[in-house]
Write a structure and sequence with these properties.
The chain has a two-stranded parallel ribbon with strand order 1-2. About 40% of the residues lie in helices and about 5% in strands. With about 120 residues, the chain is mostly helical. It has one domain: 3-Layer(aba) Sandwich (Rossmann fold).
């Protein structure tokens, strides 16, 4: 979701890469609830951080404590930023509860992304 917002608001001014320590595919609910806000992430992919070991970055942003704590050492001089967003895919329950979780996290990620880009 952050990749979607950074790309959307950053336009051509920035290049965004996203990856995790595991690949699971893009969550269909992430696609759905980002689409509600006008951001299409349906063509995004689930990448492993090892795919980017040879690239240079200005910033490395981790978006959950699990990733921050278990991410392999990533050799970079990039400025590291961490924010622990709740993972809405972990929510179980009614469709309404899942929707509320995705929307809440989406809106938090949107606000973070706008603030991050504004500080560049």
């Amino acid at each position: 979701m952050m990749h979607g917002y950074l790309s959307y608001f950053g336009k051509e001014a920035i290049e965004v890469r996203s990856a995790g320590i595991e690949t699971h595919g893009v969550n269909p609910n992430a696609i759905k609830y980002m689409g509600e806000d006008g951001v299409d992430i349906s063509d995004h992919t689930s990448n492993n951080i090892s795919e980017y070991l040879d690239e240079s970055f200005d910033y490395l942003v981790t978006v959950c404590d699990h990733a921050n704590e278990t991410c392999p050492v990533f050799p970079t001089t990039a400025k590291k930023i961490h924010y622990d967003f709740h993972d809405p895919s972990k929510v179980e329950g009614s469709e309404e509860a899942v929707a509320a979780a995705f929307r809440k996290t989406r809106d938090q990620i949107k606000a973070f992304s706008v603030g991050f880009l504004g500080a560049l």
